[in-house]
């Protein structure tokens, strides 16, 4: 069981923003946007690496599993597929 709650989608974050338009909430949402950008870069980097084996492969498998659970990555993949 994860120590974190289920990740929020972009739609859920927009709904939160609409319910609470304080300066503090905008700062929190900007931080979330920044962290999502880091997750996106990690996803791009992992996908661009060549084949690995041993410990490196195990680390990549764990990273890939974590990234695949992120709504922001799924949303990016969906957007990429629908733009083509």
Short structural description:
By secondary structure, the protein is an all-alpha fold.
Question: How would you describe this protein?
Answer:
The chain has one domain (10-83). The chain is 76% helix and 0% strand. The chain has helices at 10-19, 23-48, 54-68, 71-83. α2 runs antiparallel to α3.
Note the main attributes of this structure:
4 helices, mainly alpha, 84 residues, 76% helix
Please state the structural category. mainly alpha
Helix and strand sequence: HHHH
| Alpha plus pi helix count | 4
Please state the average pLDDT score.
Answer: 87
Q: What percent strand?
A: under 5%
Give me the count of strands. Answer: 0
Overall 3D geometry? Answer: elongated
Query: Helical proportion?
Result: over 70%
What are the segments in which pLDDT stays under 50 over at least 5 consecutive residues? none
In total, how many domains does the architecture comprise?
1
Largest sheet: none
- Rg: 15 Å
Which helices and strands appear, and what pairs or packs with what?
Layout: H1 10-19, H2 23-48, H3 54-68, H4 71-83
């Amino acid at each position: 069981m994860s120590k974190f709650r289920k990740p929020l989608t972009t739609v859920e974050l927009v709904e939160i923003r609409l319910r609470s338009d304080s300066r503090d909430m905008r700062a929190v949402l900007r931080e979330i946007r920044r962290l999502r950008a880091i997750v996106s870069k990690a996803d791009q980097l992992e996908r661009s690496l060549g084949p690995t084996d041993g410990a490196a492969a195990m680390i990549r498998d764990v990273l890939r599993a974590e990234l695949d659970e992120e709504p922001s990555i799924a949303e990016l993949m969906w957007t990429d597929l629908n733009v083509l």
